[in-house]
Amino acid sequence: MQTVQVIGLGYIGLPTAALLATKGFSVIGVDTQANVVDNLNNGKIHLHEPGLDILLKSALGSGNFLATTSPRCADIHIICVPTPFKNNHEPDLSYIQSAISSLAPILNNSDLVILESTSPVGTTLKVRSWLLELRPELNNVQFAYCPERVIPGKTVLELIENDRVIGGITTEATTRAADFYKCFVEGEVLLTTAKTAELCKLAENAYRDINIAYANELSMVCDQFGINPYELIKLTNHHPRVNILQPGPGVGGHCIAIDPWFIIDAAPKLTPLLQAGRTVNNKKPEWVVNKIKASAQLFDQPTILCLGLSYKANIDDLRESPALSIAKQLTTLNIGDIIACEPHINTCDTLKLFDLKAGLEQANIIVILVNHDAFTHINWPALSNAGKQILDFTGITTNFSAAQNTRSPAFDHEGLK
Ligand SMILES: NC(=O)c1ccc[n+]([C@@H]2O[C@H](COP(=O)([O-])OP(=O)(O)OC[C@H]3O[C@@H](n4cnc5c(N)ncnc54)[C@H](O)[C@@H]3O)[C@@H](O)[C@H]2O)c1
């Protein structure tokens, strides 16, 4: 039985480690947070991901999974630690560097190290050089890069079903890594070089960022013309070669809002388009706040309900969330009483959280910031008829009105359609 060690037990590492244990590998999961490790060994997960609790229980039940705070010997080591950027948008590789430093004492020359963290081009080679600085004799350790493409909310399924791109520093590394992924991936396993695989991941998210920036720009143009942007995009996408993504209150999370910077940082003079995309998406929350401010002026100290705080639908992840930053900003403007409903979290330091029913009852203005499934069955026309102003920055009311064969109530209001 091969032993696989997964470094970093977060949104990517934990599902990967648990899945591998259920597929017959002996798995060591390493995380620097001792409380996370203790909880996992007791079957408790620290993040919201459908199916993950069951997968972890099954991994523990198989006897193949153990979480720990320091690395042990293994055949394959997968690095899944964060790769944020610094204040100047320069990639912060310190977590990767510390991961390879912690692995250095226990690595053997026959081991394979796979980097899954989203990384700038050339990082896999750097990881190898960091190791060789510490242990020059380990010049036979193989290194490969394999980016992760799962979508939060469907991670467990997509870990198995998605196609994977794998690039080793050597052909041997590529082949060994590919053989390993073929043990549990049902999608295609596509082979390339480490540098190409690194850029592939960044190019995918940069593409989405630019496409969303276009949708966000269009939504503001639509607003000027009094056109519903969601209806417009739906119609344009009936063109056989057009596929515009959905506008929203901004772009958040730790992937799409960050990864384009890894290309921009490396090639600033060659990336005006990527930079423009980032600017448009970063400015959208400010535009949203101004729309809410304008609506609030129609009331005397209104109660403003922010529906959704996470960075995207159906998850609890607040990292880089435009919805959260908009809600927080509203609390500083003295335009009314700001309350929020986020079904996926229980507490929030800076905002008054309400359950959905109570929040909808109290609100004069309902600001839809995230299109959670929990909001899809709300009767928007009834709320609108009750005199509540609905500002939809997600398109959820458009879908509702199409299903009900009525016009979107938000469309008939001032403010965003
Ligand atoms: N979350 C996603 O949907 C997603 C999708 C694709 C790619 N990625 C990429 O995957 C990587 C991991 O992302 P994530 O969302 O799982 O991050 P995360 O913050 O959820 O988890 C990272 C974990 O690594 C641990 N950690 C940090 N340094 C460590 C070290 N030296 N040794 C051991 N553990 C350490 C942290 O305590 C944390 O639990 C990032 O590069 C991210 O960009 C994430």
Automatic annotation (TrEMBL):
One of its GO terms (biological process) is polysaccharide biosynthetic process. It comes from the Bacteria. NCBIfam families: NDP-sugDHase (TIGR03026), PRK11064.1 (NF008286). This is UDP-N-acetyl-D-mannosamine dehydrogenase. One of its GO terms (molecular function) is oxidoreductase activity, acting on the CH-CH group of donors, NAD or NADP as acceptor. It holds the Pfam family UDPG_MGDP_dh. The keyword NAD applies. Residues 305-399 form the UDP-glucose/GDP-mannose dehydrogenase C-terminal domain. Keywords: NAD, Oxidoreductase.
